What we know:
The chain is an alpha/beta fold. The chain has a single domain, classed as Rossmann fold (3-Layer(aba) Sandwich), CATH 3.40.50.720. The chain has helices at residues 16-28, 46-49, 54-57, 68-75, 96-117, 152-157, 161-180, 203-209, 228-240, 257-267, 289-293, 301-314, and strands at 6-10, 31-37, 58-62, 80-83, 122-126, 184-189, 191-193, 217-219, 222-223, 225-227, 246-250, 255-256, 276-278. The strands form 4 sheets. A 7-stranded parallel beta sheet has the order 3-2-1-4-5-6-11, with helices on both faces. Strand 1 (6-10), helix 1 (16-28) and strand 2 form a beta-alpha-beta unit. It holds the Pfam family Epimerase. It comes from Urochloa decumbens.
Amino acid sequence: MEAAGKSVCVTGAGGFIASWLVKLLLSRGQYVVRGTVRDPGASKNAHLKALEGAGERLQLLKTDLLDYNSVSSAIAGCEGVFHVASPVPSSRSSNPEVEVIGPAVTGTTNVLKACYEAKVRRVVVVSSVAAVLSNPNWPKGKPFDEDCWSDEEYCKKNEDWYYLSKTLAEREAFAYAAKTGLDVVTFCPALVLGPLMQPTINSSSKILFNYFKDRETVENRLRNIVDVRDVADALLLLYEKPEASGRYICSSPPIKVSDMINILKNLYPTYPYPKNFEEVEEVSVYSFEKLQKLGWTFRPVEETLRGSVESYKAFGFLN
C-alpha cells in the first residue's frame, strides 16, 4: 500500500476542508496520505477513493480521535499531521461539555501527544475565527488579528459552545507545544465556502445554501468568506514553509450579504433569493496579512460562489 513518499496524516479526511486538502496533497505526487475517518467503507468517503493517486497513495484508517491508541497508530511513521477534524454542533447543544467541548479538546490533545511520540516534523491544527472574534474587549473598529483570542467567560455567558471549544482546543495546542517543543502552527479560517466534494452540505456551506430558500428577509451582515480550495492551499503552505509559526487568520475582504446575493442573481437569476435586507451593526473584519506574507493568495468571491452553486446543483441540492 505505502508508496515511496513523505507520509502525512489528515484527521477527519472525509470533511469539507479535509477532502480538498487530501486532493491537493495527492496532486503533489510526493505525499503518501493517511486519512482518519470513522468508517473507511462508508459511501460518504467514496469521493476520496476516487481521487487521482488515491489507489497508490491514500490510506483511509478507521480512527476514533477520543481513543489515544487509535490516534497513535494512525500517526505513527508520519512526518506531518493536519488536524482538521472537530465536532461542529448542528444546533444548540443540550450537553455542550459532552457533545462539543470535551471531544474538541480531547481529540486535539490526543493528536498532539501522538505527534510528539511519533516525532512528527510539524502539526498544522485547524482552528477557526471562532477562537478569535468573541472578545468584547477588542478595540471597536480594529480588524481582528492573530493577537485577539475569544474570551472564554464571554463565550460561556453567550452559550457559544463551538467558539469556546475552538478557543480551548487551540490554546491547548500552543500550551502543549510550549511544554514539549512540538512544532505546532494553528490556522483560523473565516466562513469557508466553495465546491463540495463530500455528498452532504456541511455547516458553513449551509449558510450560503439557506439564501436559496425564498426567505422574505435576511440580515445584511458582513460575511468574511474564504474559498475551500484556497484554504487547502494555505494549509499546505503552513506545513511546507519553514518560517511559518504561531497562528494564522485566513479570510478575504468582507462582503455584505446583499452584495453576495446580487452576484448570485447575475450568475443564476432564477432562484428564489431573499427579498429584503435588514441592516445590522457588525464589525467582524479580519486582518489576514500574516498569511499573505507567506505567499498566500485568494480567488475572487464570484468564483467561490459559482463553484459552490455548481456543486449544489451537481449533487441535486439545487435544481
